Amino acid sequence: MQLPNVITARGFNKATLEEIFAIADRMQKGRFNPDILMGRTMATLFHEKSPCTRLSFEMAMKRLGGSVAGADIDGASLEDTIRVISGYGPNVIVLRYHEENGAVKAQEASSVPIISAGGGSNESPTQALISLFTIKQAFEKLEGLNIALVGDLGDWGTARSFCYFLANNYPNNRLHLVSPKQTRMRDEVKAHLKENDTEYVEYTEPDELDYVLPVADVIYVTGVETEPHKDNPPLFVEAEEAKKRLTITPAALSRMKRTAIIMHPLPRMTDNEINSSVDSDPRVVSFQQARNGLYVIMALLQMTMIGYDTPTPAKATPALAGLACAN
Fold it and tell me: Phi and psi dihedrals of 201, rounded to 5?
């Protein structure tokens, strides 16, 4: 069996997620065939620049013996572009697109699987999977945890995918959606969480870190943007204040559990997300999270083009020491 696409978190069940994590774990340990995708081609189409995202997919494909053809795309018809590119015969298309539901439209036009690499405010299931894999490695479970998502949540596609994955597949977690009031998590996501809260995920919605620091097992941070509010002085000032309130600083770390972890999709845009002075604290796992991205993407590429169950070599392939991020 093969993955038909990677577009939305709502398209995955728990068995599939566990298979992704198991294959990624084997990849991380070097237990994979480095020629398994030989003769196959991945096309990368990016409307928005993201060097880390692009390189993580390209390095993953090459690690498995495949080839890559990439291009930046402009404002031409997305559907036409996808029909043309899929007609060239790639085995998969990785798309990063700015307009809402771009990956859904692309899949409707494509004759090959689409993997969404995020972009704009679109869901980012790949980055959410990387985050879940990182949490699973840290706690050996994805249930019974206090998890805080911190920053501009309304347009953070990774956070939406993350919420859907948890609500649909992993029970008994408590989510804390920490954001400025003007960038709350979207209503449709909160409605989905409420539908499942009796046996799955409960959530709170504070606008301060103080509430979650002592209880959180996981703090997952993104930035608070001020630029969209530059023409509205009151909102701009509020966003600037929120940016400072929601920064992970040494003082914030001192109030957290010793067993907690702090994640970030990387790269940081400012020091008002996770202050660089705390990077050496072992609870800050964002760079490990970035490395994990390579192995999760390798798993997704294999499962999309080859399938779930493939033999692994007896001798491990050397693991990479470098970084990869897929934000």
Answer: -105, 130
Where does 9-123+293-305 sit in CATH, by number?
3.40.50.1370
Read off the pLDDT band of 324 (50, 70, 90). very low
pTM of the model: 0.90
Report the C-alpha gap between 117 and 10 in whole angstroms: 16
Q: Are 53 and 72 in contact (CB under 8 A)?
A: no
pLDDT digits (tens, 9 = 90+) for 197-256: 545 577 888 878 988 999 999 999 987 776 665 666 666 677 777 778 889 999 999 999
Report the alpha-carbon distance of residue 85 to residue 27 in Å, rounded.
29
> Is-same-fold flag (9-123+293-305; 125-287)?
yes
Cα-to-chain-centroid distance, residue 176: 18
- Rounded-to-integer distance, Cα 306 and Cα 133, Å: 21
Q: What is the CATH number of domain 125-287?
A: 3.40.50.1370
Question: What does the domain layout of the chain look like in residue ranges?
Answer: 9-123+293-305, 125-287
Residues 70 and 121: their CA atoms lie apart, in Å, by 22
Q: Residue 317 corresponds to which tokens in the numbers above?
A: 């392939």
Q: How far apart are the first and last CA of the chain?
A: 28
> DSSP 3-state assignment of 163?
helix
Q: Which residues lie closer than 8 Å to 194 by C-beta, 6 or more apart?
A: none
Read off the tokens for 146: 């206090």
